[in-house]
Specification:
- The chain is mostly helical.
- It folds into four domains: about 5-65; about 70-130; about 135-220, Arc Repressor Mutant, subunit A (Orthogonal Bundle), CATH 1.10.10; about 235-315, no CATH class.
- Helix content is about 50%, strand content about 5%.
- It has helices at about 5-30, 35-65, 70-80, 85-95, 100-110, 135-150, 160-175, 180-185, 190-200, 235-245, 285-295, 310-315, and strands at about 85, 115, 125-130, 175-180, 220, 265, 280-285.
- A three-stranded antiparallel sheet has the order 1-3-2. The protein has a two-stranded antiparallel sheet with strand order 4-5. Strands 6-7 form a two-stranded antiparallel sheet.
- Helix 1 runs antiparallel to helix 2 (about 35-65) and helix 3 packs across helix 4 (about 85-95).
- The longest helix has 28 residues, at about 5-30.
- The radius of gyration is 27 Å and the shape is elongated.
Length: about 325
Amino acid sequence: MTTSDERAARAISEMRVAASEYLHVLEQAENASLDKATWLEFAAELGNWSAQLRDGMNKANKELGIASAREAILLYLLHHVDEPVPADALASVSGITEWGRRVRELRVEFGWPIDSGVTRDDLPYDHYRLMADQPDADLADSWRVAKEARNLKRPGGKSEAARGRLLHYLKEISPLAADKEQLSYVAKIQEWPRRLRELEEEGWQIISNVDDPNLPPGSYRLPTLEKRPPRVREAIKLRYKILERDRRRCQDCGRTPALGATLQIHHILPVHMGGKNDEENLVTLCIQCHGGRHSLMSGDPKDELLNPEYQADLQDA
């Protein structure tokens, strides 16, 4: 009676044969006089041997006690915690074409903190990273709330309804953060970042990693349920423009949110001395360098575009 190890080795041998035949077909194609019809015949053979390779992978997984594609993906990620892994690697270890759905199940249903280029701005789009070796109950609960928010019937047109769902979701999980995938899922529209900016204009304090470097890039949170006075739309748009112009980097020390910097916008010539909200009079600074520019200021510095009343504080300091 053969053991599971022996049966796994047999499956691997079958894969080796399939791989050898795959290479043989490629050699034939390389040396052939190709036209469309001839190439399609080669492509069909390659597809056949590829399928046999996948079958062998699934047999080996099963014999080694890996019960499903989802388990294979999780075990592989657990061997590479906090390391970016390419999507092709996950597709290969899963042995199925719908491996992406299994990754989503691990995040949404079981709370495994798996980031990707979809959820974070600092990862390549086709890479994934398991952030911890234990599932996150808060993440699973956040996705449960996201499903509820997505199904809410909101008044108004598509944009207004999306804005309402986003606000409901951020309130429900506050002060925890939501990533891009969750926000896009809740909003049900591609223009969800614009809806977030509109909520900022209404006075909701929506924080990104520019304001809180502890947040992953591409994540947002609502730190308080208290709504502030509406902000000037032009000021919010101008702030994003200056941040992009300065490459989201402090123009004094060079630090970025990835290096722990909280970024703010500063008037080079203060407003009380005649300075305007012109682009050439605005610069991106980290909170420490901003405080240094205002050495007479008491308390923590604030973003001068989002807090116009701060200019009065500076004048009195």
